[in-house]
């Protein structure tokens, strides 16, 4: 789920530029630019600081979007499933305990 943001919108409403926002939150102008473009996800601390500047809850500034195909996530999860070892199958266990 990609993290999206409304940073540019909130900056414009406050009338501050990237450099000013960076100074207010302890980050560089470049970091603010990367966050706005979606090329960098801020730490929780930085996201909270940014939200505080705008006097908004963090989820108003940052939000998750659904990926295009949720079936691809399901298939990826399925590919990580480990096959059951024949030695640990219920029939193998009951056969060995009856010996």
Short description:
Helix content is 58%, strand content 6%. The protein has 7 helices and 2 strands, in the order βαααααβαα.
* Shape, principal axes of CA atoms: globular
Oligomer: single chain
Give a count of the beta strands, DSSP E runs of length 2 or more: 2
The spatial strand order of the largest sheet comes to: 1-2
How much of the sequence lies in strands comes to 5-15%
- The CATH architecture term of the domain at 3-68 is Orthogonal Bundle
Q: What is the percent of helical residues? A: 55-70%
Rounded to an integer, what's the Rg over CA atoms? 24 Å
> Within the CATH hierarchy, at the fold level, what is the topology of the domain at 3-68?
434 Repressor (Amino-terminal Domain)
* Tally of alpha and pi helices: 7
Helix-strand pattern, N to C?
EHHHHHEHH
> Separation of termini?
51 Å
Corresponding CATH superfamily of the domain at 3-68: lambda repressor-like DNA-binding domains
Largest beta-sheet characterization: 2 strands, antiparallel
Regarding CATH, which class of the domain at 3-68? Answer: Mainly Alpha
Structure write-up:
- 58% of the residues lie in helices and 6% in strands.
- It has 99 residues and is mainly α.
- It has a domain at 3-68: lambda repressor-like DNA-binding domains (434 Repressor (Amino-terminal Domain), Orthogonal Bundle), CATH 1.10.260.
- A two-stranded antiparallel ribbon has the order 1-2.
- Helix 2 crosses helix 3 (29-37).
What's the topology here?
Layout: E1 3-5, H1 7-14, H2 18-25, H3 29-37, H4 44-53, H5 58-61, E2 62-64, H6 70-79, H7 90-97
Antiparallel strand pairs: 1-2
Helix pairs in contact: 2-3
């Amino acid at each position: 789920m990609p993290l999206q943001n409304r940073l540019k919108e909130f900056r414009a409403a406050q009338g501050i530029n990237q450099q000013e926002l960076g100074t207010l939150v302890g980050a560089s102008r470049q970091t603010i630019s990367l966050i706005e473009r979606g090329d960098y996800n801020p730490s929780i601390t930085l996201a909270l600081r940014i939200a505080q500047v705008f006097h908004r809850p963090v989820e108003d500034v940052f939000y998750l979007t659904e990926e295009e195909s949720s079936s691809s996530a399901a298939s990826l999860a399925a590919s990580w499933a480990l096959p059951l070892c024949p030695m640990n199958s219920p029939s193998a266990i009951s056969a060995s305990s009856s010996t």
